[in-house]
Amino acid sequence: MRIRFEGTSKEYARRDGGALAALAGIDLTVASGEFVAIVGPSGCGKSTLLLLAAGLLPASAGRIVFEGERAGRPLTALVFQEFALFEWRTVLQNVAFGLEVRRVPAAERDRLAHEYIRLVGLDGFETRYPSELSGGMRQRVGIARALCVDPAILLMDEPLSALDAQTRQLMQDEILGIWERSRKTVLYVTHNIQEAAYLADRITVLSRRPGRIRAVVPVPFPRPRRETLLADAAFGRFTQDVWSMIRDEARTAMREGA
User: Fold this and answer.
1) Which residue in 100, 158, 196, 220 has the fewest CB atoms around it within 10 Å?
2) Is the pTM of this model over 0.85?
C-alpha cells in the first residue's frame, strides 16, 4: 500500500491558549513496499508524523491518503521506542494480542502468532515471559506483534534506541531480514543517520520545529546490504552529507531547548 502526505501540518494547543506548530506542510509519498527513514533534529515532529499516519492524532491541516488494496487488514501497526510488552503475557500471547483484539478465532491466532515468531527468529521462546528475554529479543516480540496483524504499512518509532550498540547493530540486520521477507511499506523514525542509510531506500530529512521537509535523499547502496557496508568509504561520505543537512538546525534546536 502507498501512503501520501499532502500538505500535512500539526499544531498542539498550549496551556496559555496559543499553539505549538510541530509539522508544517509535509508533502511526501511512500511507495508500496518501500522503506523510508525519517531523520531530523530533536523535536522536529518525526514521531508526530508517525502518530498522524497511525490515526492516533488528527492533522491540523492537509491530509493523509492511503492507496492500495486493504483486504480487511489494518492500515498500520506501530512499533514503539520502548518495548511496550505485557509483562504478564508470554511471547506467544503478546504476539497474538492484536489478533485477539480483532476477535480472530483461537486456532488461527495461534497459527499466525507461531508463524511470525518464527519470522523474527524466536521459535522455542513461545512460553517465555518478557522478563526472561534480552532487550533485542523483546523488541523482536514487538515487531512480530505488529507484523502479525498484517498491516498494510509498518510504522517504527526509534525501535532500537533503547538497545546497547552491539545489540542495535544485530537488530538492524534482523530488521533488514524481516523486511526482505515481508516487503512491507515501512516508515522508520531514527536519530541515527548511519542506521537510516543502512536500512532505508530513501531518507527524509526534516528541519527543526516546525518540521518541514528539507530533502528526500535516495540511498545509493544496492540491496542486499551487509555489515561490511558500514566500513565502506562511500557509505561514510554519504552519511556525512546527510548529517551536513541537519547539523546547523540541530545546534539551533538544542539552543532553543527542543
Assistant:
1) 220
2) yes
